[in-house]
Amino acid sequence: MAAENEASQESALGAYSPVDYMSITSFPRLPEDEPAPAAPLRSRKDEDAFLGDPDTDPDSFLKSARLQRLPSSSSEMGSQDGSPLRETRKDPFSAATSECSCRQDGLTVIVTACLTFATGVTVALIMQIYFGDPQIFHQGAVVTDAAHCTSVGIEVLSKQGSSVDAAVAAALCLGIVAPHSSGLGGGGVMLVHDIRRNKSHLIDFRESAPGALREEALQRSWETKPGLLVGVPGMVKGLHEAHQLYGRLPWSQVLAFAAAVAQDGFNMTHDLAQALAEQPPPNASERFRETFLPSGHPPLPGSLLRRPDLAAVLDVLGTYGPAAFYAGGNLTLEMVAEAQHAGGVITEEDFSNYSALLEKPVCGVYRGHLVLSPRPPHTGPALISALNILEGFNLTSLVSREQALHWVAETLKIALALASRLGDPVYDSTITESMDDMLSKVEAAYFRGQINDSQTAPVPLLPIYELNGAPTAAQVLIMGPDDFIVAMVSSLNRPFGSGLITPSGILLNSQMLDFSWPNRTANHPAPSLENSVQPGKRPLSFLLPTVVRPAEGLCGTYLALGANGAARGLSGLTQVLLNVLTLNRNLSDSLARGRLHPDLQTNLLQVDMEDLRIGTCPAISWLWPWEIHVSTLSLGFLTCKIRYSCSFCKPFVQQFVLNTYCVPGIILGARDTAFIGRQEKK
User: Fold this and answer.
1) What is the pLDDT of residues 60-76, one digit of tens each?
2) Is 170 annotated as a binding residue?
3) 566 assigned binding-site residue
4) HSE on the CB side for 410, CA within 13 Å?
5) pLDDT tens for each residue of 274-316
6) Whether residues 57 and 195 fall in one domain
7) How confident is the model at residue 667 (pLDDT cuts 50, 70, 90)?
8) Nearest Cα residue to 247 out of 190, 291, 285, 187
9) Which of 291, 472, 502, 546 is catalytic?
10) What are the beta bridge partners of residue 373?
11) 417 marked among binding-site residues
């Protein structure tokens, strides 16, 4: 019986003991047959440092002491008379031999290591927040062309709006704050991706040609009659369609966020001030000058600008929906009259016949990631073709920089030539076949095999047709707490579109310039039949909102990207994806690095950053027979030692949102602001 009690007391020792259990277990267990002196433990209430006189020699103490098993249920120290242990307020062996003092508690080591690691990570994140370019969000990310509109998107998310709600409000805000890039009188394309369901929708609201538009009219008068350049705007229809599918807040409430910006006013951005100074519409109307040049010259950046006219338009659209824009009301009549007064042929019927398209994006797999991009008439298939070709090259740190840049440049030449063969598939069934070829890994392998590692192709591998595209565009990229990704790019085509503005303040687009027709300019390549002018047709587009996600499972890297600059946008997106997915560069570094663009129409290779140069010449000049031309912000040219002329061009402005899913709490967003920074430093 005594033995059973002894065993039960021993097993209960780990549950609770008024004596430090860790100190007891660190001692060596003594033989049971050694005599144990009787020395009762006294209460912890005593304030003595030592309760009794301890043995100063730990060895003699251990030999004379027998560890008595203490009843774990006892709470009274005085009841444990049989123990030779005496309570201390410190380790009685702290001054003992170094062997004892060097013993470490394993838990302490683990805790210390964890705290050190956590501190390091925290410091790194804080430094990234305060000193890095990316914006860091915890519940969702919003990146746009204007800080004011980014704030609008964040505000919508904070009011429990969906990611699409935030995108709609931010896009309408950009039409107010950045009217040179986007607006109600333009169009665009939105890609929406549901992360958890792995489903995507493409809302295409690209402008369409008026029913009475003819190629001959554009050939004769496109430079003198800006009304001919106006396509049927798709912005309102497209945003409303997206809201109907994915909106959470009422339509009127979403539009009210943007209307408040127009009514209260905003500080003019550097981009807008520069566009007014350098790229005003060639035939600016009196109404345009009154709106944007009230003092006769461009306002300075930071000047307050209010647009109560657009606030009123948004209020009407919020109340009556898209019908107020397309169904023959005052807004429709104003747009038709403005375009026709400037030589256009657009009619009320064109507005009533317009519809946004709901489609599936094209997709490809690149290094374990699914890449989603718009289908024709957009050039998403050419983007995926470029990635498919590059995937087969050994683009690692072991490859020379010159070789890697050569592969990239040659690949982009092929991708851009392929893009020139695209157009509206509704009007040409061969475009669907071309799209399928561009998405094929087999076709990519063929083109890869045609690229010589040591020299450029003496003649183009493919016929090159005329490539046109909107030089300016506005972008909205959102990853919201609802696990949706939204990437949207919209445009008026060239800055301020056609330059025509209605009495209600709506700027009309010039998207008909994106069609191809004969004898447009003396140096243009052959016109593209796939992108010829036809009534109701949508022109070729380089608006490329793109989403990247893991090809399998949920966990991994998610990207949302956008670009402007027409064909240069395709080149830029390809290289940013290459930096992130192949070379594993971080967000800021991927955007900050220079990019190449082969201009097929002029046989010039454009380079936008200093870091692509070796000495005074581009890094790839040793194997590139074209003239290396990088049009600079200043007019100076550098003369290279091997007969190439170089200078610098405007960077391919891009935006980027990255999220590593299943690593909670942090989403990164960034905008490539190199161009803005250079201008501000002048």
Assistant:
1) 544 444 444 444 444 44
2) no
3) yes
4) 28
5) 999 987 887 778 899 899 998 888 889 999 999 999 999 999 9
6) no
7) low
8) 190
9) 472
10) 362
11) no
CB within 8 A of 625, min separation 6: which ones? 455, 456
Give yes or no: residues 413 and 502 share one domain: yes
Whether 472 is catalytic is yes
Helix (H) or strand (E) holding 366: strand 362-366
Q: How far apart are CA 536 and CA 659, in angstroms?
A: 39
CA dihedral 241, 244, 250, 252 (to 10 degrees): 20
Angle between helices 163-177 and 251-264 (to 10 degrees): 30
pLDDT tier at 468, thresholds 50, 70, 90: confident
Number of domains in the chain: 2
> Which band of pLDDT confidence, cut at 50, 70 and 90, is reported for residue 57?
low
491 annotated to bind ligand: yes
| Residue 166 phi, psi (nearest 5) | -65, -40
The 8-class DSSP code of residue 455 comes to S
- Known binding residue 373? Answer is no
Cis preceding linkage at 28, omega within 30: no
Amino acid at 628: I
Element (H, E) at 670: strand 667-671
64 and 145 in a single domain? The answer is no
Q: Indicate the pTM of the whole model.
A: 0.74
Tell me which DSSP letter residue 375 carries: P
- Residue 306's Cβ-count burial label (10 Å; 0-12, 13-18, 19+) is middle
Q: Is residue 104 part of a domain?
A: no
Residue 268, domain extent:
137-681
Is 206 part of any known ligand binding site? yes
Q: Using an 8 Å Cβ cutoff, are 470 and 493 in contact?
A: yes
